[in-house]
Amino acid sequence: MVLSIPKYEQGPIRPPSEAQSLLVRLTRNCPWNKCLFCPVYKGEKFSRRSFDEILNDIVALADAAKHVKKTAKALGYGEEINRQVLARINAENPDLLQVAFWLFGGAHNVFLQDADSLMLPAEQLSRIIQRLKQTFPSIDRVTTYARSRSVIRFSQAELENLKESGLSRIHLGLESGNNAVLELMKKGVSREKHIEAGQKIKDAGLSLSYYIILGLGGRALWRKHALDTADVINQVNPDYIRVRTLAVHPATPLYKLKASGDFIPLTDDEIIAEELLLIESLNVIDSQFVSDHVLNLLEELEGKLPAAKTKLIKTIKSYQVLPEDKRELFRLGRRTGNFRNLADLTDEIVCRPVEYYYRQLKEKGQTVDDQIQQLMQRFI
After folding, report:
1. Shortest CA distance to 250 belongs to which of 159, 376, 66, 82?
2. How far apart, in whole angstroms, are the C-alpha atoms of residue 201 and residue 121?
3. Neighbour tally for 51: CB within 10 Å
4. How far is 1 from 249, CA to CA, in rounded Å?
5. Which terminus has fewer CB within 10 Å in the chain: N or C?
6. Which positions ≥6 away from 221 have C-beta within 8 Å?
7. Tell me, what's the pLDDT at 1?
8. What pLDDT does residue 378 have?
9. What is the pTM of this model?
10. Which CATH architecture has domain 147-321?
11. CA angle at residue 54 from 53 to 58, to 5 degrees?
12. Alpha-carbon dihedral of residues 26, 32, 35, 39, nearest 10 degrees?
């Protein structure tokens, strides 16, 4: 089946939690684009897409959905989008695959791209969301990335109107609550502005997802990074706390600081100690702690606070008390993709290839931490 593929733009990234969301591009790239740790958008100029461009994309996305449904019908599935339909789309019209996955997931969620959709005027953003919901009545969640500075320039009434128009959640890169870390990483915002933005989002009735980068303070600032980040979270009480582990990509300015010795990254064990201090210092009411990224060593650290706090701490400490060789084995298994959680250490079949790899490293005189630094580059 050869189809004329509708043309629409999509940006390069989205949160893991938006894997089955429809991606609608409102802006191109990042308006700040100076963060030392970020490899995305470097060398790219920021621009706002015109209102008409965006509306044309919504029409094209609707046409794409119709094409996917036609494929399902031609295969004898009616309008059911199943794995057989996904396989056919992937084979014949891979440009439609993202829309197909969205339909496969129920067609409920939309993510507005790129790095900061709140760079558009509030009134225009409201109209876009309304048009999306008119075009796709099944939508019940609309989310976006934003920077704290962009949130602050909106009035409380504008944020509340966005909520009324259908915006559900703002994903905000807190990264750190420590001003020295934020300044070092050229984040372009202070902890005070982070707090102001977070409280405005919550007061507007919007869901707030904070992103934290474990290890961002390096060896010099790790303790302040953990304590001050916990303090910001405690003051704002976001709906979600999503942790990411720092991996220094060669394409980032931070890589040069690392090479010169001006930034010393933490090892996995040091990052786990930092994460423990962060969790122990949390005193929030009802945030969901989420570890939904492949770079995180302990992916199983998930739960609703404050009830889950004891369990999270217990899990970290159960890793810390392991003998050194078991911790090394787990780190290697996690970074090679063989392990998902600590229980995998007791699975003989799952452990076998990791143990073989571990012995090879030891025989060659290579350290696990050096090998892990190379392995983590694959996941950035």
Report:
1. 376
2. 16
3. 16
4. 41
5. N
6. 178, 180, 181, 184
7. 43
8. 61
9. 0.91
10. Alpha-Beta Barrel (3.20)
11. 120
12. 40
